[in-house]
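Can't paste images in this forum, so I'm doing it all in text. The chain is below; anyone willing to post the predicted structure tokens underneath?
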Amino acid sequence: MKRVNTMEEQDKISTLEEEMNQIPHTQAMMVTPNTKQASEKTSNNLFTEECDETAESIQEQLSRQCTWPWSDFFDSKVAFQTSLPAPLGPFQVGYLDLMTPGLPQNSSLLRIYYPAPSNTSITSPPLWADKECRAGMLRFIQSAAWDWPTWVNNSEFNPLFAAKKILLSPAGFLTGFSLGWPLIGTVRTIPIARAAPLAPHVGSGWPVVVFSHGMGCNRFNMSQLCYQLASQGVMVVAVEHREGSGFGTFYMNGDTVENIPYLQVPVDENEYRVRNKQINHRCEEVLRAIDLLVKMNAGEAITNVIDKNNHTISKSSMALTILKSSMALTILKSSMDLTNHLYLAGHSFGGSTVLLASSLDTKVKAVFAMDPWMYPLAEQKFEIAKPTLVVNSEIFVNPNNFHVINEASKNKSDVTFEVLEGGVHLSPTDLPMAFPTVLRKVLGMKGTVDAEVTMVEINKIVWQWLKNLIS
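Text version of the structure:
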């Protein structure tokens, strides 16, 4: 059975598809850190103390600091919040959200994570997912359960399909999960500070990683990877993709907020055509993000309309607010080494996205792809010509994905493959930490190793990859 969209949603989807048709194909741990004391650690010894702890020690600390007693799960409403794990590097982390004006095919929506001084206070951390975001994620899960994408292994999600059989219909599925999340889920905040001062850099500027999220995500669903890296002295730019693969996003049409829902793609003869258009749109978004970074690094003025979606700001104050948001970007002037140290990273759909984008910008020096989903590029010719590390979770290993990568890099020896033991496809995301440990396995969010431990290991791998490149 297929989800029936409302007329409004159908109109939006039709509009999105029309816009996509205009896109040219591209050639080719709980701690709330109010103040973090200055540390003697340097960016070259990430996780030497924290992550050399045994898994049991990590789990003990996290269970003491991060989880709720069972009685709290059954409150009628969640009335308090807990933070995602604190940054482990020598810096605190600041962030700026940036949306440029325009339609999805010629504008950008980004979250920029950057190193902030170690004494920066985290007084108003952003929510990891508000009510609207949770609803969007559930709609995505519902849609995926009825139209499971090709070349995406589903064995770790067997309980999801069992729930599908029990709840029978998409509407029943969505209702059941919507009622369950407020009862058992944790409201998480992200330990970062909006518009915090930028820590002074050494040399030509901070190294930069542009990050592409996977299907059903947005610019902050994989925040731990981003802010942990930023806490080591890296500028991380998370792109929010707006071609229908995320759980839901938006753009500004003048003063009007236009929502972009998840685009349910039936598994039929048109699946590849739609997914291929999406990945080429995503690729262009990554390239536009790089262009914006070049402009900001050069001190060019960038109009930031992100606050137009903030309904608490009066119309009379909006112009000044936009000016302030735009001026906040000026702290990034001359702060990035885009000549020598520009890298791409991505997960799942984002993994294939950055593999494609890396071939189209000579400034990109290397690529990190986690569980890259290569189906959208199965029939498109492209070349992997940059040093590339591909890390797969055990269950996501799929010969078809490897085949596409090998075909694109058949004349190169720069692609290295690794397997993350004990992890699952959702391990690099923040989603497992939104649920109690006892339910993660049921929801396909836990392998043989707990999510907190796996996340630490993933961050070690990412940092070691980047450290080798920048040193």
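The first strand starts at residue 82 and ends at 83. Residues 1-10, 19-79 have pLDDT under 50 and may be disordered.
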